[in-house]
Amino acid sequence: MGMRRRVGGFVLLVNPILCDGFGHCAELAPDLVHVDEWGYPVIVTEPVPLANLAALESARYAVRGCPRQALRIERVSDPH
Amino acid sequence: MIAPDSLPRVLHGASGRPLTLAQHDEAFGPMPRTAPSLDLLEASGLTGRGGAAFPTARKARLIGDQRGHTKFMVVNAMEGEPAAHKDRTLISANPHLVLDGAQYLAGIIGARHVAVCVSRDDPIMVNHLQRAVHERDRHSARGVNFELHTPPWRYVAGEESALIHWLDDNESLPQYRPRRPHVLRIGHAPALVDNAETCAHVGLIARYGSDWFRRLGTPTSPGTALVSISGAVARPTVLEVALGVPVRTIIERAGADPDPQALLMGGYGGAWLDARHLDVAYSADALAPLGSSVGAGVIIVLPRTGCGIVETFRIARWMANESARQCGPCAFGLPAIAEDLARLVAGDSAGAGAAYDRLVDRCGAIEGRGACRHPDGVVRLVRSALRVFADHVEDHVRGRACAASRSNHHYSAVPTLEREEELIWE
Ligand SMILES: Cc1cc2nc3c(=O)[nH]c(=O)nc-3n(C[C@H](O)[C@H](O)[C@H](O)COP(=O)(O)O)c2cc1C
Ligand code: SF4
Ligand code: SF4
Questions:
Q1: What ipTM goes with this model?
Q2: Which residue from B336, B365, B370 is facing A16, i.e. has the nearest CB?
């Protein structure tokens, strides 16, 4: 990405089959994830602008911190 | 040739036992010798009869466009829906029509293998299909290679990614597909999955053309469809109807209670339809604004003496037990929803009011969060019940649980929960 303009947005996606529901992601990215009553992550579905560096950084933390590697960041070209 | 306006079509020639290949060719005429045409399929406007009503040609195009020498055509005759009997009825009548259509679709996508999938818990169906496949092998001029596969019966075993998982690796577990449309693969080979009834319609379109097909049905939902009707009917039956006829006509033809309370449309993952709307057309676009659908072609008739909340509870409890238990929101959410419904049925003493509020929240919480659409089906069912039976729900919350909810007479023939509490997937 480097010097390119940060256009578009991203979403954080969870693979529910891999996820074990211990909820580390909700601690690592509290703005994007909260847990449901059973401890499984509920993730903001609206794309977040890539320009929101703090959110992007915390999403990356969550992806790296997920013990099951169940999380993924996906770019969306057209945020609304 | 079948006259364009006459019914039945896919059940044409049904005689109580499956037509042999010779009888089949006599009844329907030969398949055309020209190359299978995607344009013809597209012009027919056929939509899938397995539940999602997705345009069949569009799916075929997606798989046809994939690179790779090996491709698979998969016929989904699993019929996981307990209230559905249409694929069984069809295969007991015209197995070769299903295979004709599958072969045609295989030709379109460039597949040399056709996997016909039917549950091993239905030995009669396995037998019918085995025979039909053998018969075709003997007349092997017909080209493609048919294989019969028999996964064990489960509700989600018929879900397309679970079916492919079975063919790939002998496990009937749905797969995670973050992006749709998703190309399912057996090994590296792209696979097209179509419901058995969908294939049968293709077998007719191939013979008689798209204009013939469109002579029945509506412009957006052309053709006919099989409907499995049960509940308050003289006898559960499977009918072939033109899409777009009033729902009232269908239930009249089935000899159902003429003044029901509601109908469960689509199946266990479908939605209740208030009997006020009996004159709505039986098609995906007419039913959608009412929150209902054609789904897997199931109609369960609930009479005025029945209790929709109990029926919903029984179905939801069964569906919770049929979760593949791979995804938290489904494995924990569905039993929680069933539990709330149980409290709603029991009434005030069990905290029905609080249960109702939780139910609404939990439906919102689990929707769209499973790897497959199994939990979404339950959410749709429960939401429709809360809407259609709103007055009745109110009575339950106020502690005036109806007499019907305490009786042992039910209209949805939910299978018994023999495996309750067992973690059947481990
Ligand atoms: C939980 C679940 C169970 C399903 N079970 C069946 C089934 O038993 N038979 C079937 O044909 N389709 C079933 N489906 C739909 C299939 O996933 C798929 O959409 C269908 O086979 C595609 O065929 P069609 O395009 O011809 O309708 C199920 C879907 C879900 C979400
Ligand atoms: S950290 Fe990973 S495994 Fe844990 S709850 Fe979050 S997504 Fe699931
Ligand atoms: S949503 Fe439910 S049925 Fe579907 S894969 Fe996940 S646990 Fe299995």
A1: 0.90
A2: B370
